[in-house]
Amino acid sequence: LQILNFVSGNIAFNIQRKWADEEIKQSENRFRDLFEGSPDAVFVESLDGTVLDANPAACDMHGMSYDQLVGKNFLELLPAGYRKEVSDNYKNFVKDKLNLIESYSQDKSGKSIPVEIKVNKIDYRGEPAVLLHVRDISERKKAEEQLAKSYEQLRHLSAHLQKAKEDLQVKEDALKELEKSLNLKKKNLDELTAQLDAKDSILNAKNKKLIELQNVLSRKDSAAKALRDKVNDALLGFKKDGLDVEMKNGKVYVSLQEKLLFQSGKWDIDPKGQKALKNLAKVLEKNLISKGRIF
Question: For residue 244, what pLDDT band results from cuts at 50, 70 and 90?
């Protein structure tokens, strides 16, 4: 019975071990399928940074075969300008102080590739190791650069629009002030126009009166001249005997010397003087005389 129990125990142990080995093998196969099929470059590296394993995407990224890639130190796969920074970060990877960074990788031709690196600690064939998922983020960087460029253009455009808005406000304020000034000038002009119209009306009235006065004076002068001519005609024969007719300030003046009116040494009016006075009286009868003015 003891032998039977011993045999049964060994059989059960071997079966369980076989099952465990089978699960490990299946797990390794699943890991290998994921490892090989990942679109991202996947590296298994030792704690000192030596590449222990790499998937096809990693080989494609660096333009190397699997045999060329395995055994290299990770620093050889980086641009020279980034090696110190990534070396310091790698130490933090090993110490579990950092598990995600952005940096640059380098292909076989020396071209720099922007990458995102995710890191996990694993056991690889019984030894501690580092698993790195390296993703090419070239397209994302281009999109970010384009976005940054667009943002900068938008910022400049916004600043330009703000400046244009401020300039427009200044011009609007100036236009309002100009409009206010023009309205005030228009008001003053309207007032001056009204004053000028009033003065023009007064001036027209005065001109009208002046024209009327000129017409009156003209008629008066015409009448005086006509009277003078008539008097001259009536007294034409007496001028050589001391009779004189003249017109001053619209009035007709007739002067008779004594020799025409009186004979020498006598007070009786001379017949010639009487005739002259009669002729003058006839002319004056035909004109209206009032206070020395003729109308």
Answer: low
